[in-house]
Structure to design on (949 residues):
């Protein structure tokens, strides 16, 4: 509700030294700079069907639509994970033997594991990314993300991965070994079910989705900011998302490495995590927690950003110490990569390293203190309006403080010896993580009017908060009291039963509050009153300066903060909004912008079916893969079903990629004013490099695993698998030469020689094939001697690491083939960019080999 | 075109570098006594070659510095993981 009488607030008094309107889009002063034409833009010439048709949602690539898809889908997974939680709480109503109670022992294990996985991966992060998708482009003044089709693809891969996890329950049971999937419990010797593999593959697909999304967001947020919107001026929510996606890029690459290795152990039969492998179970813990600790901030940061945004709006005050707040977030994001071993205090790592990681853990709690105090101070200095979003955000702060303090206990080595594996840990991370959820529910109430143009029933909203807060504390606080309850086990000492009964009651109250929230917003969608463009009196960011919901292309002109405040300038091609292909797949040159220069407005595309098709293809492919164990199809007709799914999925996926490459798709690329620090590279080049950086971590984690295992094994006792380094040397020559020929292809393109391009690329292709043939011969001979990937850990590392590299080669050759065909027909003469993107990738594959060769053949 | 010439030279350097790495092995330097130095030499050679490919073939040299930092960040993350994890082994 706008509170016009408050307009003489103290919000322009800024004791922390900032000029009043510096942060990204302090725009909605008294009058909106737009008088928004509320016309229905949806159906003129953008190729997008109406919102009410299903087809719209299958083909859309618009960031706002994708945001809504994420939000809604995430809420379904909340329901899914929530049901599992309630089942667990029912089981825990009383301590009882396996089978007495609603869940069997096996079912309980699956419920615990999948509850954790679903909530952390399929609910929490995607829920936050619903808002990120919707709000971030609006806050930075962009019309869409840099690669709209890849954005839609991220969503469809996410959905496919979630469906896979659902499917796993029906394939003899989902993964039962806990959300941390510790080794060696995670290998088929202990968790043999096909469904367990499917759960793992589902997570791997999710990782792919996150990586694509990360590349997209990083490119967009750095390159496509409006004029005057420097990094310092970015709104806080945008800042939190920016740091989140950076953490995602590196952390999820490590997880991907861990999951590829695990899948290989499960599907192909390598022995990385086998109980008898040197360092096996410890390796998993390192890889998982190197990802896992950043992950806890990845899920928490968006909530923090939303909290900061909500606090500012409803205290009518800019956050105290804004610069410091941002600095603290940046520091935490970096530090989050050097605390992971505090999750391993009870493993066999040595005492000096435990002490070191205790120190870094204490270090990381310090910037958090600063942020907490900044938020508290903002409340003290401002005038609070107890709206629904504020209540949730405020509650979140309270919960986070409790969660944070109890976390510091866990960071102390000696205390952790006591607390590890108990409900103290369970209580701690629920206070922080579900504390984050609390803030995101606040975000839902905050941005809902913007996303739907409707306002909800505020009374019921507040009621939902009361239920939520009571339910939450009733559920999780008793866990601190009964902390000696062993974690992940359904049996516990009788004396704790009353506390667990309380917790179970709390769980249902909390569940009820979610249902009420769903009811409140559901009702508002259908019969809610119209929301204003800016329903909050003191909101300051740009999304509130446009209509609710915003038109398809967001702004009535080119947003600019050139004179300190948001204004819209008339749009002309010269302003930089030039349409160009949304690359990203190295093969998108099909969409070469021909003569789109002036009327680009009408050519901007918003629809493509191929992201959706890619999602379907991935679903089939990964389902198919789950039917393989020890490099063999499972027995019986199901084996054939899996095989068919695999082949179908792979063919469909390949087709979808080619189709996407050939499709005309133009999106605004920027730069629109601010593009630090990538101002002189195009979006696609930037995206390509960002992707390669994550690939560095992927291969780095593989090589790191090899080094780690070898150290655990005894470095010098380890013999390379190939007896002779010559085949490896020949392959090095082949790859180096193929890199050189790609360089020649570019030179030929500059000289406008189709024949030159085709010939050079053909040479690359042939050399690549030569590389694979040579490798094939080598593998075949090893196999002949009885050495295969399951023989021992040395063989496993050799075959898997060089195999992953070979897979990269194969992908490169497929792209090369496609490009040769296109070059033959005269492509790349006036636009050699795709050749260059291919080159970046190919040279990277070459570089990786430069390390693999000595490590696996010589040393 | 002078660029083409530069690229050719680089190709030759890379080719020789790879050969030298195997040469170190064939010269019998991977034996106790010279082992550490030989391994170090081989790794350094790989690093140098990688930097050359990145700098010239991927023309990082002529791009904005931020791209190099970006790759440096990835490398740093991987190194942190590898070194700390290997060091943690009792
Ligand atoms: C003040 C900052 C924090 C500190 C010092 C801290 C410390 C710790 C420590 C030492 C552990 C390991 C306990 C054990 O397993 O024995 C732990 C576990 C955990 N923390 Fe935190 N934490 C903090 C913040 C957070 C945040 C913000 C989140 C998530 C949003 C979080 C989520 C988790 C999770 C999920 C676990 C359990 C991991 C598992 O399943 O074993 N923590 N925390
Ligand atoms: Cu942690």
């Amino acid at each position: 509700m706008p509170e016009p009488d408050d307009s003489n607030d103290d919000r322009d008094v800024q004791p922390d030294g900032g000029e009043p309107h510096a942060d990204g889009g302090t725009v909605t002063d008294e009058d909106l700079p737009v008088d928004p034409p509320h016309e229905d833009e949806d159906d003129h010439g953008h190729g997008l069907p109406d919102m009410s048709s299903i087809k719209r949602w299958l083909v859309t690539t618009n960031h706002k639509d994708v945001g809504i898809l994420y939000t809604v889908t995430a809420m379904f997974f909340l329901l899914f994970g929530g049901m599992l939680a309630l089942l667990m709480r029912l089981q825990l109503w009383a301590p009882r033997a396996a089978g007495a109670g609603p869940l069997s022992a096996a079912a309980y294990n699956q419920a615990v594991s999948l509850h954790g996985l679903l909530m952390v991966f399929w609910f929490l992060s995607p829920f936050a990314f619903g808002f990120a998708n919707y709000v971030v482009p609006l806050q930075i003044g962009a019309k869409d993300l840099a690669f709209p089709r890849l954005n839609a693809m991220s969503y469809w891969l996410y959905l496919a991965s979630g469906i896979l996890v659902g499917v796993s329950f029906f394939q003899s049971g989902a993964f039962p070994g806990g959300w941390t999937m510790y080794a060696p419990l995670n290998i088929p010797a202990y968790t043999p079910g096909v469904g367990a593999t499917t759960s793992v593959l589902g997570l791997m697909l999710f990782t792919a989705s996150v990586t694509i999304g990360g590349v997209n967001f990083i490119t967009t947020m750095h390159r496509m900011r409006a004029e005057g919107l420097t990094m310092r001026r970015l709104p806080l929510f945008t800042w939190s998302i920016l740091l989140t996606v950076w953490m995602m890029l590196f952390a999820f690459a490590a997880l991907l490495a861990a999951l590829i290795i695990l899948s290989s152990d499960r599907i192909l039969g390598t022995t990385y995590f086998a109980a008898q492998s040197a360092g096996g179970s410890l390796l998993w813990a390192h890889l998982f927690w190197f990802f896992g600790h950043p992950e806890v901030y990845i899920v928490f940061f968006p909530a923090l950003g939303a909290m900061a945004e909500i606090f500012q709006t409803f205290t009518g005050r800019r956050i105290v110490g804004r610069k410091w707040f941002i600095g603290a977030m940046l520091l935490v994001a970096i530090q989050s990569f050097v605390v992971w071993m505090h999750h391993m205090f009870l493993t066999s790592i040595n005492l000096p390293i435990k002490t070191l990681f205790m120190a870094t853990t204490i270090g990381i709690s310090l910037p958090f203190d600063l942020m907490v105090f900044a938020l508290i101070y903002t409340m003290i200095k401002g005038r609070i309006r107890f709206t629904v979003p504020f209540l949730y955000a405020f509650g979140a702060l309270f919960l986070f403080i409790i969660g944070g303090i109890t976390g510091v206990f866990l960071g102390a080595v000696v205390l952790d010896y006591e607390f590890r594996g108990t409900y103290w840990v369970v209580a701690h991370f629920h206070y922080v993580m579900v504390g984050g959820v609390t803030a995101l529910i606040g975000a839902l109430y905050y941005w809902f009017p913007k996303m739907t143009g409707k306002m909800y029933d505020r009374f019921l909203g507040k009621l939902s908060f009361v239920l939520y807060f009571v339910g939450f504390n009733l559920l999780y606080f008793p866990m601190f009291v009964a902390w000696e309850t062993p974690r992940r086990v359904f049996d516990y000492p009788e004396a704790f039963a009353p506390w667990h009964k309380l917790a179970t009651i709390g769980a249902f109250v909390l569940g009820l509050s979610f249902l009420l929230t769903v009811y409140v917003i559901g009702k508002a969608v259908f019969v809610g009153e119209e929301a204003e463009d800016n329903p909050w009196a003191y909101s300051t960011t740009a999304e509130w300066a446009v209509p609710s919901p915003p038109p398809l292309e967001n702004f009535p002109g080119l947003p600019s903060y050139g004179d300190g405040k948001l204004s819209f300038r008339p749009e002309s091609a010269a302003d930089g909004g030039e349409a160009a292909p949304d690359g990203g797949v190295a093969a998108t040159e099909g969409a070469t912008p021909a003569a789109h220069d002036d009327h680009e407005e009408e050519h901007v595309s918003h629809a493509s079916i191929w992201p959706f098709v890619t999602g379907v293809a991935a679903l089939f492919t990964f389902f198919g893969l789950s039917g393989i164990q020890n490099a063999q199809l499972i027995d019986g007709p199901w084996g054939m079903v899996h095989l068919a799914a695999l082949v179908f999925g792979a063919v469909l996926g390949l087709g979808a990629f080619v189709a996407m490459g050939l499709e005309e798709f133009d999106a605004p690329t920027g730069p629109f004013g601010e593009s630090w620090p990538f101002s002189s590279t195009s979006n696609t080049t930037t995206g390509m490099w960002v992707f390669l950086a994550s690939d560095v971590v992927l291969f780095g984690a593989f090589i790191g695993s090899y080094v780690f295992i070898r150290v655990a094994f005894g470095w010098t006792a380890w013999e390379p698998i190939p007896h002779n380094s010559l085949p490896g040397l020949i392959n090095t020559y082949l790859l180096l030469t193929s890199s050189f020929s790609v360089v020649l292809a570019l030179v030929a393109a500059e000289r406008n020689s189709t024949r030159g391009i085709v010939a050079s690329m053909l040479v690359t292709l042939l050399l690549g094939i030569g590389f694979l043939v040579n490798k094939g011969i080598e593998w075949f001979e090893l196999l002949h001697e009885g050495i295969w990937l399951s023989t021992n850990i040395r063989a496993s590392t050799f075959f898997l690491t060089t195999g992953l590299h070979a897979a990269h080669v194969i992908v490169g050759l497929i792209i090369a083939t496609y490009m040769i065909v296109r070059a033959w027909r005269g492509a790349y003469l006036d636009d050699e960019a795709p050749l260059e993107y291919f080159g970046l990738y190919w040279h990277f594959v070459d570089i990786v080999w430069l390390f693999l060769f000595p490590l696996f053949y010589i040393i | 075109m002078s660029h083409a010439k530069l690229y050719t030279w680089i190709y030759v350097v890379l080719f020789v570098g790879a050969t030298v790495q195997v040469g170190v092995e064939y010269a019998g330097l991977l034996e106790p006594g010279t082992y550490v130095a030989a391994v170090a030499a081989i790794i350094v050679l790989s690093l140098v070659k990688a930097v050359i490919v990145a700098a010239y073939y991927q023309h990082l040299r002529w791009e904005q510095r931020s791209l190099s930092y970006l790759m440096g960040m990835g490398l740093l993350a991987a190194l942190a993981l590898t070194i700390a994890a290997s060091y943690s082994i009792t």
